[in-house]
Every structure is written in structure tokens, then in C-alpha cells.
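User: Reviewer 2 asked us to show a designed sequence for the structure in our supplementary figure. I'm pasting the C-alpha cells here. Could you produce the per-position amino acids so we can include them in the response letter?
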């Protein structure tokens, strides 16, 4: 099993299109050359140096990503969606030494320059002449990527994926979903998360396919399907696509239907796909979306089959070489319980967080690699011979999924608690058709404090990405607590759902 990097660089003479972005088409040979140029411009860097990317989706991003790996660095992907304090936290936590930016993000990145962080420009790097260099020895266990993911402990933590993880993940997913160089992936997912970065972009590139990058706009996506073979999305995107479809005139709908029917594959992941959305897609295109289960820490773990029956509400079966167990509270195998995963795509641990890494893994009785605890409650559907997995929800009420983004209720609460008007706060998720979880902040104000939802929303927005800002603020006299004084979030969420908040 070769590394993803060697698969990519093996296309140094390939004239096939790797990326189509806002600037046009870019052949593999050009993006590989760009990657070599980026690597030369960064060199020499110490193995494992964290290099952050703040670059729009497109060919420059791809060259930067592989260029950092070629130079022996570890990629940390940042997003312009994050306000400065959050981006500064990621850079500080990861100990980023170099921040590679494109023209569009130069100004945004400027305040992050410091004695510790050097800013470099990807356009200049790509334009340099790459030094003739052999592919470095890549140790499969060496870190390649550090992605930030929200947890149950407040601030996001950096999940470290190795070269081995990325290589095996790419091969498994490409094989399972039948990727080839004849594919054109329509790509509108953000790149600072596993779905957009590895499951979508890297899977396609590792298979020699073409990736068309675009920002998510429902009408534009429908139109672009005509020129694609594969589309990957989160459920919130399907929701938006159908809203646009319903608003469109008959001729437009007919055109969009024609384009969507030409796709060979449409996938959904990152959050539960409501059966109503899946059925809607089937009604328009004739085929059921392929739903799969994934995580930053494992990539895709469980998937419906490309050719077999896709079972509504199920995520299918583990990929080859991925082992899955359902474990009850007593630690024994159970019908319903927490999903544990083991396999070569499971990440190496959280950056500089030994305790959280230890808590995430459980030693295997057979002495093999440890099991990773996903924090998802699952079961297997006995109504089908294959007994596909069903995701029932999260084991923690503090982990929410909004539009496919994992959010930590505790992180949002911590920020709100810094506001002088806030005495107590509890953040909960309410089921919502558009977002999955609709994030609601329940706030008890200090006596005499008058800050309203506009003030609190603005306060959070300055500190966290806009998708983490609660959709609603509910002001309460007190929060429901149990006998030991702990806020009972399920009670709170139920009251809000029933309109008693
Ligand atoms: C945007 N907003 C959101 C979200 N996205 N609020 C809550 N949750 C969200 N996900 C806010 C905006 O800040 C804005 O707020 C308002 O909603 C409308 O924004 P709009 O421009 O219409 O939204 P958008 O920019 O079009 O984004 C919608 C989106 C986006 C395209 C669905 O959320 C998205 O790209 N989601 C994908 C997330 C993802 O890739 N997750 C993968 C994690 P205001 O009006 O106040 O400014 S990886 C993973 O889960 C594993 C590995 C797996 O299995 O895949
Ligand atoms: P993240 O940490 O952003 O990678 O999100 C991973 C989480 O997304 C998983 O632990 C699940 O809770 C959720 N998830 C991913 N795919 C699905 C799916 N198909 N159905 C339900 N939840 C999903």
C-alpha cells in the first residue's frame, strides 16, 4: 500500500485535469510541479514542523497541501470563517511555524505574524523553480495532518492523522465508492474538516480524478452537476438544494433533474441524513444517496455499498480492515451501545493532550491496536441479513452537530460566561430540519443586566466561527438542576422543544 503522497507525485507528467477552480483547469503535472515548488520554497524545515494553510479551495491549496508533506511538514488547515482569536488559538496550540496564505487571505493572516510564525505566500512559492528532489522517505507512522475537532472539554483539539492513515483511508474509500480517473467530483465542502479535505478532495486526487471546487450555493450546485460524476454533501446541503428546487421554475427543475441524474454517485455524511431528504433525492434522481459514517479521527469507517441496496436510515457496514464493536456501559458487547472502531485509518492521538488521547482509546484484549471510542450510540438493524449499522445519537449531550459541523456546547458556554451580563448559561441542541441540531443558548442574566440576544450574539461572533453562534438565546430566571446542582440539559432541551422554554 503506497503513500498518498507517492500516488500524487507519480502523476508528475500527467496532463489529466486534477483541479478545476475559479481560475480554470489545472493538470496533475502542474499541481505536482506546484507542490514541488512549495516544498523547495519551504525547505529546509524540520520533520514534523506544523505549517498552516489559509488558502481558498483550488489548485493552489492542493499544491500547498502536498508541498508541505513533501517538505516533511504537517499540514494544519485553517478557515477564513474563524475570527482572529480562534485562528490564533489553532496556531498557538499546534505550534504553527509557517502560515502559508494566498492573496485573498493575506490581510486576514497578517496579525498572526510573530517571532514564532512566519507568513509565506503560496502564489510566490508555486512560482519558484522546484529544486530537483527525490521523494523523501515517508514513514507511515509520521504525522501528516492535524485537524481541529470539538470535544467534550471546551476548546477544540488537534487530531493527528499519519501518512499511513491518509494513504489507507484514501485507498479504502476510493475502492468502496469506485473512484477512477474518469470521475469528476463536485466539491463544495469546507477544507478545514475531514469530510471536505480527506473524504472528498484527497480520495478523488488519490484516484487521479478531477475535482471541481466551488463555494456552496444551491442553484450553482444544481447547475454544476451536469459536469460532474460524484457529489458529496452534508444533509444541510441537501436541505438547501431542495429548497432551491422548490423555488425554481419548471424548465430549471427539468435541467437540474437531468444534471443530477447524470451523477453516478451522491453521498451524504457528517450527520444523520433524514429519510425524508434521502427520499426526495431519490424522487428527483432515481437513486438513493449513499450514506456513510465518519469522524475526524477515523475518516470514513462505515458505509453503505456502492452497488448493493442502500438501506434508509442506516450507514451500512465497516470498510474492509475496519473493525467495529458495539459496547454497553459494562464494557461488554451489546445490541445498543457505544461504537468502538479499530483499524489502520484510526488517528494517532490528540496533539499534546495525552490524557484525552488515553481516554479516547481502550486497550484491545488481543494485544492488537487499541479500540477508538467514537462517542456515538449505535445499533445494528436486525431486519436485514447484513445487519447494517444505525447511528442513534451521541453519548454526550454536549456534542452537537449543526449543518455537519461538530460543536461543543461547553466551548460556546465558556465564551458566553465571559460576558459581564451572563450569570449562568447552558447550550443545547434542538432537532431541526435545516441544521440537524439547532443551537440554543439558555441564559440567566446577572441581576440588573440588560444585555439582549443581539449583544450576546455579537459577543460570540467576535470570538467563534459564525456557525458556532447560537441561533436562539432564551433568557430564563434559572436553569433546571438536579439534586447535585448539575444542569439537566435533556430536561432543558425537551422544554424548549415543547415550547416551554
Ligand atoms: C452556516 N451557518 C451555520 C452553519 N453554516 N449555522 C449553523 N450551522 C452551520 N453548519 C450560519 C452562517 O454563519 C450564517 O449566519 C447563516 O447560518 C446563513 O449562512 P449561509 O451563508 O446561508 O450558510 P453557508 O455558508 O451556505 O453554509 C451552509 C453549509 C455549511 C454549506 C451547509 O454549514 C457547510 O459547509 N457545512 C459543512 C460542514 C462540514 O463539512 N462538516 C464536516 C465535518 P449569519 O446569518 O448569522 O451570519 S467532518 C465530519 O463530520 C466527519 C469526518 C464526516 O463523517 O464527514
Ligand atoms: P467530526 O468530529 O466533525 O468528524 O464529526 C464526527 C461525527 O459526525 C460522528 O461522531 C457522528 O456523530 C457524526 N456523523 C458522521 N456521519 C454520520 C452519519 N451518517 N449519521 C449520523 N451521524 C454521523
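Assistant: Here is a per-position design you can include in the supplement:
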Amino acid at each position: 500500500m503506497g503513500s498518498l503522497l507517492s500516488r500524487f507525485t507519480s502523476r508528475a507528467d500527467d496532463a489529466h485535469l486534477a483541479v478545476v477552480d475559479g481560475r480554470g483547469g489545472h493538470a496533475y503535472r502542474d499541481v505536482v510541479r506546484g507542490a514541488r515548488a512549495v516544498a523547495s520554497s519551504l525547505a529546509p524545515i524540520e520533520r514534523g514542523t506544523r505549517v498552516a494553510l489559509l488558502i481558498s479551495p483550488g489548485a493552489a491549496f492542493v499544491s500547498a497541501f502536498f508541498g508541505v508533506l513533501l517538505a516533511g511538514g504537517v499540514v494544519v488547515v485553517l478557515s477564513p470563517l474563524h475570527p482572529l482569536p480562534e485562528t490564533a488559538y489553532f496556531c498557538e496550540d499546534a505550534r504553527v511555524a509557517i502560515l502559508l496564505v494566498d492573496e485573498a487571505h493575506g490581510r486576514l493572516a497578517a496579525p498572526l505574524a510573530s517571532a514564532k510564525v512566519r507568513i509565506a505566500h503560496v502564489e510566490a512559492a508555486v512560482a519558484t523553480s522546484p529544486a530537483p528532489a527525490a521523494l523523501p522517505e515517508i514513514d507511515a507512522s509520521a504525522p501528516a495532518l492535524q485537524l481541529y475537532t470539538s470535544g467534550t472539554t471546551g476548546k477544540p483539539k488537534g487530531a493527528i492523522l499519519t501518512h499511513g492513515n491518509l494513504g489507507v483511508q484514501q485507498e479504502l474509500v476510493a475502492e468502496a465508492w469506485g473512484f477512477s480517473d474518469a470521475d469528476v467530483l463536485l466539491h463544495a465542502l469546507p477544507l478545514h474538516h475531514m469530510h471536505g479535505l480527506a473524504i472528498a478532495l484527497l480520495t478523488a486526487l488519490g484516484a487521479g480524478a478531477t475535482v471541481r471546487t466551488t463555494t456552496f450555493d444551491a442553484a450553482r450546485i444544481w447547475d454544476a452537476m451536469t459536469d460532474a460524476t460524484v457529489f458529496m454533501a452534508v444533509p444541510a446541503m441537501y436541505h438547501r438544494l431542495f429548497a432551491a428546487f422548490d423555488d425554481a421554475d419548471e424548465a430549471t427543475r427539468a435541467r437540474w433533474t437531468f444534471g443530477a441524474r447524470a451523477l453516478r454517485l451522491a453521498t451524504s455524511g457528517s450527520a444523520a441524513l433524514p429519510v425524508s431528504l434521502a427520499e426526495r433525492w431519490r424522487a428527483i434522481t432515481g437513486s438513493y444517496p449513499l450514506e456513510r459514517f465518519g469522524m475526524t479521527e477515523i475518516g470514513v469507517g462505515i458505509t453503505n455499498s456502492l452497488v448493493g441496496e442502500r438501506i434508509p436510515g442506516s450507514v451500512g457496514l465497516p470498510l474492509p480492515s475496519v473493525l467495529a464493536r458495539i459496547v454497553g456501559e459494562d464494557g461488554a458487547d451489546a445490541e445498543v451501545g457505544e461504537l468502538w472502531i479499530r483499524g489502520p485509518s484510526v488517528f494517532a492521538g490528540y496533539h499534546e493532550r495525552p490524557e484525552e488521547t488515553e481516554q479516547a482509546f481502550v486497550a484491545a484484549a488481543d494485544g492488537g491496536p487499541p479500540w477508538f471510542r467514537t462517542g456515538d450510540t449505535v445499533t445494528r438493524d436486525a431486519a436485514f441479513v447484513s445487519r447494517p449499522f444505525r447511528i442513534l445519537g451521541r453519548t454526550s449531550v454536549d456534542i452537537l452537530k449543526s449543518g455537519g459541523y461538530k460543536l461543543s456546547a461547553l466551548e460556546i458556554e465558556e465564551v458566553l460566561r465571559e460576558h459581564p451580563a451572563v450569570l449562568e448559561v447552558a447550550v443545547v441542541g434542538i432537532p431541526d430540519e435545516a441544521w440537524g441540531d439547532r443551537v440554543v443558548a439558555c441564559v440567566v442574566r446577572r441581576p440588573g443586566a440588560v444585555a439582549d440576544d443581539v449583544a450576546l450574539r455579537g459577543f460570540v461572533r467576535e470570538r467563534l466561527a459564525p456557525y458556532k453562534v447560537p441561533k436562539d438565546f432564551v433568557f430564563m430566571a434559572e436553569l433546571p438542576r438536579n439534586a447535585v446542582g448539575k444542569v439537566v440539559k435533556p430536561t432543558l432541551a425537551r422544554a424548549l422543544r415543547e415550547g416551554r422554554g
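For the response letter, you might also mention the following. The pocket of methylmalonyl-coenzyme A (ligand 1) is lined by residues 189-190, 193-196, 199, 216, 234, 236-237, 269-270, 294-296, 402-405, 435, 466-467 (CB under 6 Å). The chain has a mean pLDDT of 96.
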